[in-house]
Amino acid sequence: MKILITGAKGQLGTQIINIIKSGKSELGNVPAEIVASEIIGIDVQELDITNLEATRDYIGAVKPDVVVNCAAYTNVDACETNEDIAFKVNAIGPRNLAIVCEELGAKLIHISTDYVFSGVGSKALKEYDLTGPVSVYGKTKLAGEEFVKQFSSKYFIVRTAWLYGYNGNNFVYTMMKLGKEKEFIDVVNDQRGNPTNAEDLAHHILKLVGTEEYGTYHCTGSGECTWYDFAKKIIELSGIDCEIRPCTSEQFVRPAKRPEFSSLDNMMLRCTVGDEMRDWEVAIKEFIDNIQKK
Which of helix, strand or coil describes residue 129? Predict the structure, then answer.
């Protein structure tokens, strides 16, 4: 099997490659056929997925069996002022990959987000629940999902949220850094979601690779909390002396609106390959334990 990973230098792409190389994740072993695969990791330097002909030429030459698209324009606030760029990367890019994968008969795993929902509600959202993004980021990611469905017959759309991993910048590293620099940090306590360890997400993506269980998936950590709860747990587990104070979203004026409630239910995983996503508190504890050992 030949697996091509776009956005390979990001926290998820890096995690997928590391797990394949080691043959196992923190959740268990990776299928032997995946470990034996040829892995090609690329980023924007190697391929601009927003260019259809370049995408067709590059992927056509590689001829992968599976493409995992981790590439995205994820700066939520910048998307509001760079709408064309966000649309090209988050919508046109996945469209191009879907077109080329269909031409080659390859599977496409496309990573999406909780931002495709409106953020209104109080019950964990299932894959079939109505979308209704309120930010440019969410709208462009939803457009990308629709293009994948339109142009690919062998697709997995995997929505995740509040992602953190060992590589790159994320909320966990930011809180740990600020915690060492400040006496207190104000963190919003009126937005609820699911912290997700990239290790867990990568493990489940690799569970899907060898199957034909096509469709849309939610893949987030088990359990939900607010950003305040998450930050408090990070500081506590890190042993950092810093006070985490709750505040409201109104106290942080940002260009893009954030979902107030975007907790996802991993129903499709439960009904197909199985949901082994760890409780968010268990996953963050192992993450912090591991980085403190380094």
Answer: coil
- Output the six-digit token pair for 184: 């207190």
Residue 292: CB partners within 8 Å, gap ≥ 6? 238
Question: Average of pLDDT values for 84-96?
Answer: 98
- Residues shown for the chain: 294
Q: What CATH number labels 2-169+195-223+259-281?
A: 3.40.50.720
Q: 3-state secondary structure string, 33-78?
A: HHHCCEEEEECCCCCCCCCHHHHHHHHHHHCCCEEEECCCCCCHHH
Write out the two tokens for 226. 């607010």
Active site residues: 137
Please tell me the distance from the alpha carbon of residue 166 to that of residue 284, in angstroms, as a whole number. Answer: 11
Cut 0.85: pTM above it: yes
Kindly state the average pLDDT of the residues 255-265: 93
Domain residue spans of the chain: 2-169+195-223+259-281
**Which H or E run contains 225?**
strand 225-226
